Amino acid sequence: MAGPQDIFETYVTAETLDRETDGWLAEIAPYQWRGVKPMEVGATALLVVDMNQTFVEGGPLSTPGARAVLPRIAELVGAFRAAERPVLWAIQGHHSVASDRGEHLSAWWPTPILEGTPDVALPAALAARPDEKIIMKRRYSAFYQTDLELTLRCLHISQLVICGVLTNVCPFTTAFDAFFRDLDVYYPADGTAAGNRELHVGALRSIAGWCGYVVRTREIMDWLKN
Questions:
Q1: 64 and 10 in contact (C-beta within 8 Å)?
Q2: Of 210, 206, 214, residue with least CA distance to 186
Q3: Burial class (CB within 10 angstroms; exposed 0-12, middle 13-18, buried 19+) of 37
Q4: For 68-104, what is each residue's pLDDT tens digit?
Q5: Cis status of the peptide bond prior to 152, with omega within 30 of 0
Q6: Are 193 and 65 in contact (CB under 8 A)?
Q7: Structural domains in the chain plus CATH codes
Q8: Cis before 166? omega within 30
Q9: Where are the alpha helices (DSSP H) in the chain?
Q10: In this structure, is the dihedral angle defined by the CA atoms of residues 44, 49, 52 and 56, taken in order, positive or negative?
């Protein structure tokens, strides 16, 4: 039976990430014709999407790209903590297939990720601190029937950096949902990863054209330092 692994490929590694990012940003440049609005540190939070074990460390949905960007995401997390800005975690997980996964999602995506299993744990390099909120989401978008929006309003957040996997699925739908809520979206090209290059660059084009600013992680970290 065909599965996601049939379209996954190694299109980037940690060693080639900077060079590949140059190419991606050149390709999406015509779509980012509005330019990039500088980030306002005091209004910004970081949201890390689906960097849990099943997507990173050898599960059926893990990709080489996720492992390539993991160190870059860890740097982002460290930079936000150093700047004393909120770090939030969104993790795909389900209490059970029957209660909150359902037949429709199961038909499209047959691999369940269940709460209380190693699949929902974060890698050691991305361990959440006790004061950082973890949001368990049931569908692709981290906003869908969660309290993420309420959390951001309580924290007075108007700008959101979204990173994680897969570029064209969960961070992608979350970015559009953030835009619909009048939040500025910053989407690091080297802090997101997809199953293959075509999906990654296609998603970056759509973000740049319609809902957010596609940037490098180092641009975000430079803003955090100023």
A1: yes
A2: 214
A3: exposed
A4: 999 999 999 999 999 999 999 999 988 888 888 888 8
A5: no
A6: yes
A7: 4-225 (3.40.50.850)
A8: yes
A9: 17-28, 53-56, 64-82, 97-100, 102-108, 148-154, 170-180, 197-210, 217-225
A10: negative
DSSP state of 182: T
Residue keyed to tokens 């980012």: 32
- What is each CA distance from 63 to 86, 99, 198, in whole angstroms? 27, 28, 14
Q: Other CB atoms closer than 10 Å to residue 74's CB: what's the count? A: 18
Q: What is the pLDDT of residue 93?
A: 87
> What are 54's two structure tokens?
């099943």
Q: Map tokens 């995506």 to a residue.
A: 109
β partners of residue 185: 160
Entry field: residues in the chain: 226
> What are phi and psi for residue 2, nearest 5 degrees?
-70, 150
Say which residue the tokens 């982002």 belong to.
Answer: 76
Q: What is the mean pLDDT of residues 183-187?
A: 98
CB atoms within 10 A of CB 112: 16
H or E stretch covering 192: strand 192-193
pTM: 0.96
